[in-house]
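Students often ask why we bother encoding 3D structure as a string. The short answer is that it lets us treat folding as translation between two languages. Here is a chain of 797 residues written in the first language.
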Amino acid sequence: MNISYNWLQNYIDTQKSPEELSLILTDIGLEVELLETVQTIPGGLQGLVVGEVKTCIQHPNADKLKITQIDVGGPELINIVCGAPNVRAGLKVIVAQVGTICHPINGEPFKITKSKIRGEVSQGMLCGEDEIGLGTSHEGIVELADATAVGSLVKDYYNSKDDYRFEIGLTPNRADAASHLGVARDLAAYFRIPYSLRDVSAFQEGKQEGVAVDVRDSYGAPRYAGVTISGITVGESPDWLKGSLNTIGIRPINNIVDITNYILHDLGQPLHAFDAAKVSGNVIVVRRAAENELITTLDGVERKLSAEDLVIADAQKPLCIAGVFGGAESGVNEKTTTIFLESAYFNAVSVRKTSKRHGLKTDASFRYERGTDPNIPVYALHKAALLIQEIAGGVIESSVTDFYPNPVNSFNFTVSYSRVQKLIGKEIPNREIRAIIESLGIGVLGGDQDEFQVSVPAYKVDVTREVDVIEEVLRIYGYNNIELNTQIKSSLNTTEKPDKEVVLNQVADLLIGNGYREILNNSLTNLAYVDNPDTAVRLVNPLSSDLDTMRQNLLFSALTTVSYNQKRKNGNARYFEYGKTYFKTEGGYAEQQNMSLTIAGNLVDEQWQSSNTKSNFYHIKSAVDGVIKRLNISGIRVEEITGLYFEYGLRYMKGQKELVSFGSVSPANLKKADVDGKVYFASFDWDLVIKIIRKNKIKFHEVPKFPSVRRDLALLVDESVTFDRLMQIAAKTEKKLLKEVNIFDVYKGDKLPEGKKSYALSFIIQDDEKTLNDKQIEGIIKKLMLNFEKETGASIR
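And here it is in the second language, the structure alphabet:
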């Protein structure tokens, strides 16, 4: 659900910023999932100024062009070539000077540049409506009032100002908040200030007979109101109305439809306008559909109705599906002059079943399904009718028909101050509880006794019991205002922290979820597989010469498993193993806990839908990085390695200790274990892992409400420059807003200078407190480019 910040100001007077309101709304149960700035006019008319045409002469080289001299309030007049038929001396106009960016109704924004048009210099543009987002007219340039001050800003002339859109994740129980009025009511309760409704006393009923109403199903339509309005002119809506709808993501259509949409999002009350000329028999019939009765809806689809569907019909045919979707044949168009305006309270269950049956979800059904206010339809009708009179020139022809045989009463039940305090867990003063309840529009009946009666208005469909009132009190009082108890009762637990088995299982779950299989190998191995025979732990009485030594690494255990499977035509390997290694020391013996990862063969098993992708170094690196991230280990230093295990690889250092080493296993080791192809292996010092995470502190931060931005750079660097080096430079350059640096392409080849390579990097930039603008983003990118060039000699491709 989208809510406009400026629209809310129609109901409540608060000086809180949009950012502050977003936090407050979330605290009181209306979670703001996104807050963004919205320009009611594309581009906000930025950079446009008022000018006066001082001279206007014929262009010597073009019959349809004029050369004008424009006063924009500067020391000199500027020359502008213009082709508009209505340009003339003395006219006040909208001027886009050189450097201004214009935002047309159709097409991409464009920048004004100094140019020559048919040999004459032009230093700007005189603007038409469609060229700057004001409207669709292309008949000529905009003519401003004669009294308009030269040099003043056009955005001030049109009172163009930014709005802010709150995207609220409305929970199903909060039907009362599905409108600007509903949100304003909650904010008024939080601030303990009044909210104001528009005065509709100017509404005057007509004396003529309008469209008659015949309600035949009071279960489906407990309340049905309507009025006939004649003499309307269907056309474009005024700017304020179009701007309000655009802010919340609703496309303006025409003034009548726009008013019904406005009331829907303003009050939460759906309305529907029927072209009265298309209502056969001049009567509206609210009834159940006949089984398999047909209706063509506004989307042009012919639908078969069920006998359980409630429809709004005339004397002959259904006109719309009640509370769900309008019909194509009775809708308002540019020829409509008289309408019947409907405002109803439909049964929530009936609408929900019909909506689900036909697979139709609309703004109206969204509200009706959850329950609308049964006591607002006539007020909404009055407000809409007054707007139609004001905007479309209508005349209220008839009296208001209001079918409401069984009024919906408020919910009355007992609440206790002591139970409120007990369930909330805090002794809130009785007067504070009462004030909150009353600020929410709930009547309090009774004195200072512990128990009292409440009268809950019918629009609060989810507040029907004492516990519901307590929840209302708590969300307005504030969950954050309930202090934690200083005494925490717990039993003694001697389990070592962190629990090694829990950590082990968490990482195992991660790896299994990524396609790895756990292997368990014998700790006994061949002496040929140890790293250092001098520190090897030998068995005194081995069972065989192949198992005469305690292993010093997990590498050959993994390679033995790979070899065994390759010989059985199962060459694709993704393994992990927890296991100990053993060493002889000066003082005796030592053992160390390790974890290994192994990848070999193809990335996925052979299948007809995809080609065979060979595993590579980056797959093992991705797995290692995933484990590091899951363990929340930071502050790692990266070093390149070769030698004992690897043909090439990396090691991650924590301080002066090696946390993990990984890479491509050297051909000599592969040959020793009788393994074909490439194998990629990683070995973690698991004892060090446990030691590090014992010191970890979990930090939480809010999920960002503002969008991130991605920018890419291609850098030409020396072959010695590593990606890790570039990451370090980027992190040092922008510490606050730069969230991620990724590499998505590396190129080496004869198209580049010798000793060079190309890196393609992506940068994710995000501000947790506001939406970034282009100027900020470009500033960060320029600093990154400058520092890359300065510290590595990189050049931007």
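Translate back mentally: The first helix runs from residue 5 to 8. Keep this in mind for the problem set.
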